[in-house]
Amino acid sequence: MKLKDLLKDIIDTDFDLEVTGITSNSKLVKEGYLFLALDGKTNHGINFLDEAIANGCVAALTDNQVIHSSVPLLEISDLKAHIVELAGRIYPDAQKIPIIGITGTNGKTSVGFFINKILNQLEIKSALIGTLGVEDNEIKIDLTTPDLTSLYQLLQRYYEKGMQRVILEVSSHALDQKRVEGLNIDTAIFTNITHDHLDYHHTFSHYLESKKKLFRLKSVTKVIINRDDHFEEISEASESKKILAYSLSEFEKIQNTENGFLLNFKDYVFELNLIGKFNLSNALAAYKALESLGFNQDQIIPKISQLTAPPGRLQKVKNKNIWIDFAHTPDALESILVSLKEHLLSEKITVVFGCGGDRDKSKRALMGKVAQDHSNRIILTNDNPRNENPEDIIEQIMSGISHEEKVDQILDRKEAIKFAISTLKENECCVIAGKGHETQQIIGKQVYDFSDYEIASNA
Known about the structure:
32% of the residues lie in helices and 20% in strands. The model has no long low-confidence stretch (mean pLDDT 93). It is an alpha/beta fold.
């Protein structure tokens, strides 16, 4: 598309340059792109203009004062107000794909993973965008919900590949920053809300209000809400939408087994090989979503019964009682520790975890107390300390622990995992929490290859 056509009715320009894509991330610029130099939370995009030019941008827009540039640089004071319009023009089919948006503190990835897997088994071409990444080798996503221009680009590619539906994890940050504006999100799912991201939101009330924004989108016609968690608040935000609630009370019988549950549900008796009642709730949310798309119980339940956990979500390491989980909130950590006790009937649990640096500090002591209350041994280690002092992070976790004799501190996460497994006794289990599926560790400015699952498997 010509630059002058892309900017029509936004700013007058005679530039006849061909624009092949747009992005606000200088690292994602490719040959022929238009770079959007926007004011960010900690920096301004204009500072990255040279990088964008080196990567191939043919022109740039900014909401800042125009500086000298080797490519055309145009100032639009209200640039952010035009991003959806620009993205829609350069990626015109992105808004055509119907989307299921999922929000909540915990469970987004599992619910999305379940829905996507079953849709594909039912021969509906679908894709999942979220924490586990995207099904596109040419687009790298670092956030749970990508920035708006990356999301539009990705959806355009999916449309061209014939995708019939997309499942999107929608974070509170994305909702607050309007990263899903203009998309065809017709179904919205709420899983739960607990303590998290207060480094960004500052108060739980602001966190909850950000989540509610998904259910107020004009495009949303169907809302699927967990009746067991903040139902009234979310349903109030879903006024005029069709509300489908789900609750664990829908199961006629729930019996714990070593590998999951034996269930009575809608005239079916079946085993579900997923540990933890939170996973029952996740499976129910997926069931309701599929039902809302027109599938019946005879199509859905046989597929539900075959579900397995997503990577890094209570993922068992080979045949040992060693589990990898992404739990990085007090509630999530408590849920997995309690669930393992219920299913394995084991009181002896070793938990290996830390807390991410440059993130919500207020949850650290809470996670320490949860670990103390629900395990018999704690090994504190690095998560992704980023720019914080790792020892300070551990000290803050320790402030929630009164039984210091239960704790070992080993900053090197690889050594901590190896120590936990080498000292594990028979009939004991180990939970390695916090990083789950992740394949990298961030220490300072450095990014290292790192997989809890691979290290635990080798150990």
